[in-house]
Automatic annotation (TrEMBL):
Transmembrane segment boundaries: 70-89, 121-144, 156-175, 181-203, 265-286, 306-327, 348-370, 376-399, 411-432
Protein's recorded name: Amino acid transporter transmembrane domain-containing protein
PANTHER family noted in UniProt: AMINO ACID TRANSPORTER, AMINO ACID TRANSPORTER (EUROFUNG)
Keywords: Membrane, Transmembrane, Transmembrane helix
GO molecular function per UniProt: L-amino acid transmembrane transporter activity
């Protein structure tokens, strides 16, 4: 109802009859929108909230219990809240900056404003790689789900290929407005599946990976003492679970009313934070060191089949969304300023499908080459999550506020300068340390498998 009222009162597209092909509106990013092309400005605030939630709640939450296992419950919750707090501020700054600079479409525009052409190229490339790696993680997660539901009915490499084909087909839907209903379905299914596992581990005698005989008591720890690489990997997993920030630029660009961005963000971050803490704490409390990543396999074979059965639609939606976003970014950059950007011409469709297919193919290669779910998630969080979510957003604040306060230096301005410097330092530390820890873990796993894991047919749902 709220979405319908918003559409009626605030739509940028007047509800009057026009001749075919007549202009509907002029957008700072997409140019002239007409009835002969896709409507890129048609996502309401509730639809925006669920798309935000789907970019946040997904693969990351399924690794949260393993992150708590590495750090311990109390440090895990504290670190999660700190990282989520920084992420929430970053996400708020995206909407605030977008209102002042409506021509901004992606994180590369921020790079251009801060560092010129070089900054635009670096951050634009990082954004595409980040989304593509997340897409690859999603394909890997889908293959795990298909293996679990089917009892490994066929080669895992085949399941990854199936995931790539379906995600590419669905990700080729042109606008986020048309994808938003899929996000509702995907989010509902994924939350249901995780709640099933969360409840099941609490009522069962022991987790699936625990010894089958003897008295078993959970070996969870309040405070753990991990190695540097394991701690860094856990923190990177938490960053990955909060790393929707660069995607929020594109999401805000397709809102009907960008002024409602903050209410969408508050709803998203509130639900996400509570959900992460409850799921991570409860599953780790009952499973201890025998928690599995992804966590959906922690409650035994029957519950694993049921939970993955519910989760698969959510995994598909998350994967298609992160395939859609980099493809849309490249598509907009290629056709920016051209009539083909918002018109259903042959060039429009050839360019669009070429972008989605290219992202899908690259993500398929990544998923097949690094087929260890937890390691891939932490690597993506460290290598791309922090330099896209933390440092550039601090730069956005400096861009808009440095000259306003440098002469008078009011207390609030000084506090924000200190805060932004902290965000830059913390982000740099997490990026370097997390990347190191993730690479160490990947090397160790490859030594165990002797390099045979890539493009493997082995069942990956029992790890």
């Amino acid at each position: 109802m709220a979405d319908q009222q918003e559409k009626k009162e605030n739509s940028l597209i007047p509800t009057v009859t026009r001749a075919e092909g007549q202009s509907l509106s002029e957008d700072a990013v997409f140019g002239e929108l007409t009835e002969n092309g896709p409507n890129y400005r048609n996502v309401g605030w509730l639809g925006t909230s669920v798309i935000m939630l789907k970019t946040q709640i997904g693969l990351g939450v399924m690794s949260m219990p393993s992150a708590f296992d590495a750090l311990g419950i109390v440090p895990g919750i504290i670190c999660l809240c700190v990282i989520t707090g920084i992420s929430t501020w970053s996400n708020y700054m995206v909407g605030d900056f977008k209102l002042r600079h409506p021509e901004v479409y992606g994180i590369d525009d921020i790079g251009g404003l801060l560092f010129g052409k070089t900054g635009r190229i670096v951050l634009g490339t990082a954004f595409v790689l980040w989304c593509t790696f997340v897409t690859g993680s999603g394909m890997l997660g889908i293959s795990i789900g298909l293996n679990a539901v089917s009892s490994h009915a066929t080669c895992t490499a085949v399941y990854i290929a199936v995931a790539a084909i379906i995600a590419c087909a669905l990700g080729s839907i042109q606008t986020l407005g048309r994808i938003s209903w899929l996000a509702w379905v995907g989010l509902t299914c994924l939350i249901t599946s995780i709640l099933i596992v969360t409840i099941s581990v609490g009522v069962q005698d022991r987790p699936a990976a625990a010894p089958r005989t003897g008295i078993w008591v959970s070996d969870y720890t309040i405070v753990n003492n991990p190695s540097f690489s394991k701690a860094a990997t856990a923190l990177s997993t938490m960053v990955f679970a909060n790393a929707g920030t660069p995607a929020f630029f594109s999401i805000a660009s397709e809102m009907r009313e960008p002024r409602h961005y903050t209410r969408s963000l508050i709803l998203c971050q509130s639900i996400m934070t509570v959900f992460y803490i409850i799921v991570g704490t409860v599953i780790y409390y009952y499973c201890g060191s025998y928690v599995i990543s992804p966590a959906l396999g922690s409650a035994g074979p029957t519950i694993k089949k049921v939970s993955y059965g519910f989760a698969l639609p959510g995994l598909f939606v998350g994967t298609l969304l992160f395939l859609h976003l980099p493809a849309k970014y490249v598509f907009v950059r290629i056709l920016y300023g051209s009539k083909h950007l918002s018109a259903n011409t042959l060039k429009h469709w050839i360019t669009w499908l070429s972008c989605t297919i290219s992202v899908a193919l690259t993500a398929y290669i990544i998923a097949s080459a690094i087929p260890v779910f937890g390691n891939l998630v932490s690597l993506v969080g460290a290598l791309f999550g922090t330099p896209l979510c933390f440092q550039p957003v601090a730069g956005m604040w400096f861009y808009d506020n440095w000259n306003q306060g440098i002469s008078k230096r009011p207390p609030r301005w000084i506090v924000m300068v200190v805060w932004c410097c902290f965000v830059v330092v913390a982000g740099t530390f997490l990026m370097i340390g997390g990347t190191y820890g993730s690479i160490v873990s990947i090397i160790e796993d490859y030594k165990i498998s002797q390099g045979s894991a890539a493009w493997s047919c082995a069942d990956n749902s029992n790890s």
